Amino acid sequence: MSDVNYYKINEDAARRAKEMNSFSDYKAGSATAGYRQMVDKAAGIAAAQKRRVDPMYHEKIDRLLDSYARKLAENMNNGFVIDARVPSVLIAGPANFPTRKKEKQNAARDRNMEEWKKIQGLLDRIKSTGTGGISADDPDAVGKLKEKLENLEESQEAMKLVNSYFREKGTLDGCPFLTTEQVQRLKSDMESRWHYGKSPYLPWQLSNNGAEIRRVKQRIEELERKAETVYAGWEFDGGYAEPCKEDNRLRIYFDEKPDEAVRLELKSNGFKWSPKAGAWQRQLTANAFHAADRIACIQPHTGERPAGLQ
Fold this sequence. Notes:
The protein is an alpha+beta fold and about 300 residues long. About 55% of the residues lie in helices and about 5% in strands.
């Protein structure tokens, strides 16, 4: 099982929440035990995923697991505090029951539940890590792509050597480029109905792998070219635009909340509101600047086009 950090659960808050909502006694340590049970389940998912994917993804899986453990503890602790704000009607009785406070408590519970659902979504991210493409947002994207390229090129060369050995020997037995298990698998493949050729590796397999090599090389070139690009922000009436290379985002900041028409225009051009950043943002690419150029209300004070489009 993956190593995991357990974060502190507020047992006092959990006890108070129990007392405000139930006549039964709180079992000391039960909140912590429940929390650890959920984190252990997540750790099992992470460990299983690490067995399935390349080791280059293991660190990311560990980070996601730690984020899950930390955010889950924060969410649970916040939930205990919310539950302890107002007693249930069974505990307090109907007379002079603080209905308005209860409504606010229920609204806070709903928000906390929505946050809990987002945290559970981290489990899906753990399960999918290493099974899809490498995001340009990943700070080590170029390094991972180069490692992927090296593996693809090694596979291409190995397939060619195996085919050459088979053409010369007429058998895969004793092939120095394959393990015993690989020999048996290829023999089984060659006996199957779909294997229409005479070589262990068919032309389409070499062709597809070669196409992926070219695609990865192109992505590396694009990302390296992007890393060398100098992006600049600008000021406009009522705010400013600022590129953030660390987060790979072009961000639009307004002095005051923009009206609905502006918000719709931002959305239609690919910008999304980020509460964390306090800005409208989209991925930092040349297309982001082209999109900004189409939004009249955020044009630079200077009258020039957004940086990089002059």
